[in-house]
C-alpha cells in the first residue's frame, strides 16, 4: 500500500478496460488520478463517483488534438498542483486487413490516436513535470506485443505500436542525456480480457497463450505501479512484456 502516495497520475483512456485497471491499482496505492476518454463520458463520471472527486478527475479529450492536451494538463495542475506520472494508454485497434486494401483515412486515424497522441502526451507532460514537479517523473507508454512482432492484418496498429516503442527509447535517451530525471518506459500487453476482445474468437485466442488464459487489466496495472513508483528509479527506456509467455 501507499507505493504511489502523494503522486498525481494522468491516465488516458482511463475509464474502461486496461486504463481503468491501471487507475484502480493507482488509487489503491495512494495516487490521485486524472482520467480521460473521448467518447465514454458516462464511464468517466462513474469512475469519479467510485474513486471520489478528492482523488480523481475526469476530462473529456481527444488525444490526437494538441489543444485538448494543453487543456487537460492545465486542469490537472489546477486540481492537484503537479503531475508525476503520465500513462499514455488511450488507443484504437483500427481497421483490419492487408495493407494494400487499407485506406489512407483509416491508416491516419490509427496513427493519430495511437502514436501522435503519445507524442503529444510526452511533450506536454514533460513540460508540466519540469515546471511543477521539479523535473522529475515517470512516463509509461502502453504499446503492445504488436509493437514487437507485426500483425499481418493490422498494419496501422502494428506500425503505431512499434512507433510507440521507439518513441519511448528516443525520449528516454533524450531526457537522460539532458540529466532530467523523467523516466520513459513502455509496457507491451498481450491478450487482456476486456470488452474489445471478440467473444467468438476467445477460445482460439486462449489456445495461443502458453499459460492457458488471457490476462486481466490489473496485470497491466500492477506493472504500471512499479514503473510509476520510485522503486523503478533505474528502469528507463525499457520494454515490459506482459503476455503470458506468448512471445517467449
TrEMBL record:
The keyword Oxidoreductase applies. Keywords: Oxidoreductase. It holds the Pfam family adh_short. Belongs to the short-chain dehydrogenases/reductases (SDR) family. NCBIfam families: PRK07231.1. PANTHER family: 3-OXOACYL-[ACYL-CARRIER-PROTEIN] REDUCTASE (PTHR42760:SF133), SHORT-CHAIN DEHYDROGENASES/REDUCTASES FAMILY MEMBER (PTHR42760). This is 3-alpha-(Or 20-beta)-hydroxysteroid dehydrogenase.
Amino acid at each position: 500500500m501507499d507505493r504511489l502516495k502523494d503522486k498525481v497520475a494522468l491516465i488516458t483512456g482511463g475509464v474502461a478496460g486496461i486504463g481503468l485497471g491501471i487507475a484502480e491499482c493507482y488509487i489503491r496505492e495512494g495516487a490521485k488520478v486524472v482520467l480521460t476518454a473521448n467518447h465514454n463520458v458516462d464511464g468517466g463520471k462513474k469512475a469519479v463517483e467510485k474513486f471520489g472527486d478528492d482523488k480523481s478527475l475526469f476530462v473529456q479529450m481527444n488525444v490526437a488534438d494538441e489543444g485538448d492536451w494543453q487543456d487537460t494538463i492545465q486542469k490537472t495542475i489546477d486540481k492537484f498542483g503537479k503531475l508525476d506520472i503520465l500513462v499514455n494508454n488511450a488507443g484504437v485497434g483500427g481497421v483490419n486487413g492487408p495493407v494494400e486494401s487499407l485506406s489512407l483515412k483509416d491508416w491516419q486515424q490509427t496513427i493519430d490516436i495511437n502514436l501522435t497522441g503519445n507524442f503529444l502526451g510526452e511533450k506536454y507532460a514533460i513540460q508540466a513535470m519540469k515546471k511543477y514537479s521539479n523535473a522529475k517523473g515517470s512516463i509509461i507508454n502502453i504499446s503492445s506485443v504488436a509493437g514487437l512482432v507485426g500483425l499481418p492484418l493490422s498494419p496501422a496498429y502494428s506500425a503505431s505500436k512499434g512507433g510507440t516503442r521507439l518513441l519511448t527509447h528516443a525520449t528516454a535517451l533524450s531526457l537522460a542525456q539532458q540529466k532530467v530525471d523523467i523516466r520513459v518506459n513502455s509496457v507491451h500487453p498481450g491478450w487482456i480480457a476486456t470488452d474489445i476482445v471478440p467473444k467468438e474468437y476467445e477460445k482460439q485466442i486462449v489456445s495461443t497463450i502458453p499459460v492457458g488464459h488471457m490476462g486481466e487489466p490489473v496485470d497491466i496495472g500492477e506493472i504500471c505501479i512499479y514503473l510509476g513508483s520510485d522503486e523503478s528509479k533505474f528502469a528507463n527506456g525499457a520494454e515490459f512484456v506482459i503476455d503470458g509467455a506468448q512471445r517467449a
